[in-house]
Amino acid sequence: MPSNVGAPVPVRQATRLINHFQLYAGSAAMRAAGRHFDSGALLVLLLRNALRPTPGGRCSISSLAASLRRPRESIRRASITLAAQGLCQADEDGLRLPDGFAGLPAMIAMRDDVLALLRQMLDGFVHGGLTFPRAGVVPGDDALLAAALDVYLSVYELSEAPLVTPMGLYVVGAISVLNAAAITHYPELGHRYGFAHTIPPDDIRRPASLQAVAEIDGFPYPTIWRHATAARLAGALRRVPDGYLLGTRFMDDPRTNAASVVKVQHVRRILSDLMAGHYRSAETGKG
Q: Quick check: pTM over 0.70?
């Protein structure tokens, strides 16, 4: 990747790309785990721990729940769901993926989808002007996957929308990604409306129907409607004739903008570490 440290950071476009990656990487995890938030999140975290060159510490249910900022009981139930699918097992240290997990069809599909999404995001960064130090190594797939999972897991710590339920965050996030679809993967528009001060007008943002949101992961329409209504009443969304747009205050709000900067900086650190060869394979100890 080119390096241009002094250039202004296209934080708005970078945030769009990250949000797109996180939405669809989460979808890949839920497809593998049975279309359930906690099971998908737990599967991602267990896979991330399995990719560490050395054991990442005790993976108790309590520690996993703390990492995901979810109730312990929710993660306990998620572990039972994964175990029933052969995607999780318990030992004396806590929870882990089963032996031979890399060859399971569900894990292969998730891995392929997440890697494709990561490469799409990296291409978007290059075309959008977001720069990194030049690669010191050519990262292997395990290193790429570990970095991708770190980018995804940051959604549990760094979110612009102060909503308390996973489904509420999902609905707002999905609508924001669908709103930006005409900009995110079009470099000219992405650059034009890529910075904190360049707010895209409504006429190039695509209103998202709740049916389109429901179709992303097959959630029931009434569930999406209920959470969209709650988000609208909280000011996170606004209703327009053809669907929903992200609320105006999230498009140009100092707190939201600051949260976006923190998110982009965090992802840049992950990807800079990847390019510097700091991610190592659990199997080979190589990037």
A: yes
